[in-house]
Amino acid sequence: LAKTTQPISMDSYEGQEVNITCSHNNIATNDYITWYQQFPSQGPRFIIQGYKTKVTNEVASLFIPADRKSSTLSLPRVSLSDTAVYYCLVAGGDTGGFKTIFGAGTRLFVKA
Amino acid sequence: GAVVSQHPSWVICKSGTSVKIECRSLDFQATTMFWYRQFPKQSLMLMATSNEGSKATYEQGVEKDKFLINHASLTLSTLTVTSAHPEDSSFYICSADSGRNNEQFFGPGTRLTVL
After folding, report:
1. Do residues A107 and A87 touch, judged by C-beta distance below 8 A?
2. How many CB atoms lie within 10 A of CB A53?
3. Which one, of B106, B24, B49, lies nearest residue A87 by Cα?
4. Could you give the 3-state DSSP secondary structure of residue A80?
5. Parallel, antiparallel, or unpaired for β A31-38 and A84-92?
6. Distance, in angstroms, between A41 CA and closest chain B CA?
7. What span, in angstroms and rounded, lies between the C-alpha atoms of B82 and A1?
8. What is the pLDDT of residues B11-54, one digit of tens each?
9. A39 touches chain B (CB under 8 A)
10. How far apart are the C-alpha atoms of B80 and A87, rounded to whole Å?
């Protein structure tokens, strides 16, 4: 299974764009990159998923370079309610099967 | 998106008792569900992979006789914590595999407190 590395924490202010980068150097050919958001005492919530290049949805963008060894989650104009832990996961139909191993995640603090 | 529910959302029990937690996929079928445990300010730790109609696959260090998993249907998996002790107090989260690119949908979690 591909191991992921993210910054432990990040601070931002309301209205700013936040970019969280995740390293996954040993990503397998058929692995997908998925980002989740988790608030205290809640289950993780799906944010976005991608395989390569750029993916955008109504809440975030995901940038994946050609070598796929990293990915960047971009949150436009964050608000206080975006304070949460963000997890980058890499998994797919590789030899590890479909199970998902969570890394430490990035704790984002959004200040007023 | 797909919805996964857990029941109960919280439970308090005495040491030595058993507690069952249910995980249901409400609007889709999931042949594979996962169980995680999360301690305060830590990441989710995968405990086991639950496959419908077969035995669960446990991660290293997780006692299969203590954490009984049953996945009897495509929409329901249960985790039973047998003879619970205070160190089993944790936040238990399940997820269901959507079958699409390993996208998982997570339940809201169950807070277990063992006195």
Report:
1. no
2. 11
3. B106
4. helix
5. antiparallel
6. 7
7. 30
8. 999 999 999 999 999 988 888 899 999 999 899 999 999 888 88
9. no
10. 27
